Amino acid sequence: MAHEIRTFGDPVLKSRATPVKEFDDSLQKLAEEMLKIMRENDGVGLAANQIGRLKRILVAAYEEENGETVEFAVVNPKIEERSEETDKLEEGCLSLPGTRVDVERPTAVTITGQNPSGEPLRVEAEGLLARIFQHEIDHLDGVLILDRTDRESRKQAMREMRERNLARG
To answer: Which candidate, 22, 18, 16, 17, places its Cα nearest to that of 116?
Structure first.
């Protein structure tokens, strides 16, 4: 099940993923493959449509205060609550290699969903993990960081991407 990360311009990235209804071995394998791809690319999150699969599943990794890295998958994730407080931070994306733009997001979110076995999950996240969830759920809705930044930053990022593509020939 070799998948490569889809990059800007691939229509699957602007497509909305469909809810998962079957929780079987193939879903577990997909989650494991996504975690592997995320790790290999030094990512902190990955949505299924980034590897061409239009299923509502994301994987994420974060570092706990003790330095231990925690990795997990969330199926059918949904943001239930968002903090009123927001912050604007620079974000990158595995589907937009070399591109970083400022994105304003709530600093905390509560998400619900299921694990790959179908058991219900509810996660209250803040800081980086909240940002990862919002970024990956955006992917599942066909939204990229370029859609979340201001017009001038988007134009600059597009210009830089064109220049990089021309340089590669």
So the answer is: 22
